[in-house]
Amino acid sequence: xxxxxxxxxxxxxxxxxxxxxxxxxxxxxxxxxxxxxxxxxxxxxxxxxxxxxxxxxxxxxxxxxxxxxxxxxxxxxxxxxxxxxxxxxxxxxxxxxxxxxxxxxxxxxxxxxxxxxxxxxxxxxxxxxxxxxxxxxxxxxxxxxxxxxxxxxxxxxxxxxxxxxxxxxxxxxxxxxxxxxxxxxxxxxxxxxxxxxxxxxxxxxxxxxxxxxxxx
Length: 216
Ligand code: BEZ
Prior knowledge:
Blueprint: E1 13-14, E2 21-22, H1 23-27, E3 31-36, H2 43-54, H3 56-61, E4 64-70, H4 74-88, E5 96-98, H5 103-107, E6 122-127, E7 133-139, H6 147-162, E8 165-166, E9 177-179, H7 185-191, E10 197-200, E11 203-206
Helix pairs in contact: 2-4
Bound molecules: benzoic acid.
The site of benzoic acid has 7 residues, from helix 2.
């Protein structure tokens, strides 16, 4: 069964390179990114996992816990970690989950047999602190993901959760955002006293509320 936006992310308990993890307990109160890769000791996967480790400060700053996963076993994961650290000159500071019996892969619909018969594809799930799925992505084996894009989506989701705004195409943190379409002009004026720029009645820009500088 496929997972839809807004669904509660299925819980599981699994071995990882950081010990046994109960997913819901582990992410308690944080945002989370669960991402699968097809296979240990493969080139694209090595660069992806190292890149995520290099970005660990960025995830931490956003209160996001990251977990990688494949259907390889824990011994294979533990052996591969050294290679990732060597190639990417980083420390593998987040857990890699082992899912040999494919329980997690099946629960999250990470196996797409027309792409890879028995291996997980490159899936991404972003969860909010209520463990609700806020984004799903599926990439084929040959395309390494852009983890700056994952961070950009997290920035958007986090300001959307805090302020009644959405983010336009190619938005990045600090750019103007748009007033949520559920807000009347009166409500928008109350929430954004600096005013908004209505390019169309339904397209109203305001400065990124997360970038506001507060003076003492
Ligand atoms: C890779 O990581 O390069 C890869 C893994 C599985 C299938 C194809 C490519």
